[in-house]
């Protein structure tokens, strides 16, 4: 289990402000939020690229807040791939294993196995610049992280800047890889389709904080704040006063009155949006 508690950090215009987050073993967890909300910094801090000003990061009960990135058991894939252009796909995928001084035969075995899982086994002799579009380069970058058998795989917008058909195909591959490996995944996205296709749970970030965490259905059907309601597509927000009697709430919106089942009393926001 990945457990983040009270994580704070300031980097210029980006910051984290007391982030609390728990990701269960084998979970596919998606983080959603506007540009500048702190999503990428959160992943980079979990990976060990930045040291937090305060707070802790634990993995399987072990405090890794100050642990060297290579010793955390965490892999990260950026949206711009960061593949070595002068190495073949096979050499790129196997680079981390080579640094670990893994036996050459074992490297070839693991690279082949991981490349086949992501559908790029036939491209191992190619260099990144010869791969078509972004799909195959992304698959190679994911394979390079996955071949190290990380406890947690961090994906920074892996499906951005792809056409709809390619994005859907790579989304299916990510789902298949997750099922096959059981790796815990934390994935940043701007696409709601990714959430409903992949996520066990989702967190919405706002201004360096977690605004809400829950299943996709909970977050999109029962937003916890006005911000989450607006960000997830609730187009109509009304303000009123709720009064509860015998388990039923009467909400006075001024021009109209609503009746619903809730325990919430006092000033409220009522939101409605498209059904999903």
UniProtKB/TrEMBL annotation:
Organism, scientific name: Methanoculleus bourgensis
Keywords: ATP-binding, Hydrolase, Molybdenum, Nucleotide-binding, Transport
Protein origin, superkingdom: Archaea
Family membership: Belongs to the ABC transporter superfamily. Sulfate/tungstate importer (TC 3.A.1.6) family.
Enzyme Commission code(s) on record: 7.3.2.6
Protein name: Molybdate/tungstate import ATP-binding protein WtpC
Task performed by this protein: Part of the ABC transporter complex WtpABC involved in molybdate/tungstate import. Responsible for energy coupling to the transport system.
Cell compartments where the protein resides: Cell membrane
